[in-house]
Amino acid sequence: MALLKLPVIDLSLKNINPTSNSWITKCDEVTGALEEHGCFIATYDGVSQELEDRIFLASQELFNLPTEVKVLNTSDIDTPYDGYVGQIPVMPLYESLGIENATTTEGAENFTKLMWPSGNESFCTSVLMYSKAVVELDEIVMRMVAKSYGIEEHCESLLRSTVYLLRYNKYLCPNGNEENSVGIVPHTDKSVMTILHQKQVKGLQIETKDGQWIEVDPLPSSFIVMAGDACMAWTNGRIEAPNHKVIMEGNQERISLGLFTFIKGLKIEIPQKLIDEDNIQRFKEFDHIKYIHYIRYTNEGKTSKCPIKSYCGI
Ligand SMILES: O=C(O)CCC(=O)C(=O)O
Ligand SMILES: [Fe+2]
């Protein structure tokens, strides 16, 4: 295990000031971290301790539901992200549920009704409040990247077409059976960005460009901001989606929350500013939702080593 650490960048709302002289330096710090590692750790005060406690408490209620209820969380052709995932032979410790359009009242209510037909107001409110608070962090990061690259307008149109998936992940402890310590197998995310939050129990590992794995320590009020495949295409390969996995140790269960961003109703194309003689165009414009279909439903997409390249690479 590498002793490397990911950069920690303070993005607390109280310290964010886009009109300050040092703003562009801060934007370049964020963009540089993403270019180098594909991710960084943001300290962020937009989620209060109370909200954090609520959202993790809600996760216990959710995972405690009977499996026959949890499997009702399915996905469809318009929103083809995974629904309930669990009892997979290669990842026996892992269980997960995804809430589509988690930032909208309709999205949070639909999911809540599906899980608790007689209602669960507190769960629904927690999901909405948490998702909205984390979206704010996503928007800050996207705008910082856009500022560094001078592609602000392009970024605003992407933000207007962004939909959000909130995923609750639970990992059982391996109980000393270290051969079965895989929580989640190595993968890149298919999103534009993913914002992960882990509570107390570590387990997430990120692969560096030279093939070493970095363990991510849970820090208070911190979020892991990670680029997905779509970000790699959007930035013409400047920011690569990092490979990551979860390995469980010790005797504590682990809960994490991921907010994933997807673009709907607008094709993702590389801003002209990011294409020139030295940086030739590496990806064609593409539809993000169709890309998810490709990965989930086609053999080529399922087996490709780098699906974003095989889907829309030039
Ligand atoms: O649990 C984690 O920290 C990572 C989860 C993850 O990689 C994913 O949901 O795509
Ligand atoms: Fe992931």
Please supply descriptive tags for the structure shown above.
globular, binds fe (ii) ion, 314 residues, 12 strands, single chain, Jelly Rolls, alpha+beta, binds 2-oxoglutaric acid, 8-stranded mixed β-sheet
Q: Would you give an account of this structure?
A:
By secondary structure, this protein is an alpha+beta fold. It has one domain (8-277): B-lactam Antibiotic, Isopenicillin N Synthase, Chain (Jelly Rolls). It is 35% helix and 23% strand. The protein contains ten helices and twelve strands. The protein has helices spanning 23-37, 49-63, 67-70, 105-115, 121-149, 152-160, 229-234, 288-297, 299-303, 307-312, and strands at 8-10, 39-43, 85-88, 91-100, 162-171, 182-187, 193-198, 204-207, 213-215, 222-227, 244-247, 254-263. The protein has an eight-stranded mixed β-sheet with strand order 1-2-10-7-12-5-4-3. The protein has a four-stranded antiparallel β-sheet with strand order 6-11-8-9, with no helix packed on it. Helix 2 crosses helix 5, helix 4 (105-115) packs across helix 5 and helix 5 (121-149) packs antiparallel against helix 6. The protein is globular. The protein starts with 7 loop residues before the first strand and ends with a helix. The model has no long low-confidence stretch (mean pLDDT 93).
What's a quick, concise take on this entry?
The protein has 314 residues and is of the alpha+beta class. The protein has ten helices and twelve strands. The radius of gyration is 19 Å and the shape is globular.
Write the layout of secondary structure elements.
Layout: E1 8-10, H1 23-37, E2 39-43, H2 49-63, H3 67-70, E3 85-88, E4 91-100, H4 105-115, H5 121-149, H6 152-160, E5 162-171, E6 182-187, E7 193-198, E8 204-207, E9 213-215, E10 222-227, H7 229-234, E11 244-247, E12 254-263, H8 288-297, H9 299-303, H10 307-312
Parallel strand pairs: 1-2
Antiparallel strand pairs: 2-10, 3-4, 4-5, 5-12, 6-11, 7-10, 7-12, 8-9, 8-11
Helix pairs in contact: 1-5, 2-5, 4-5, 5-6
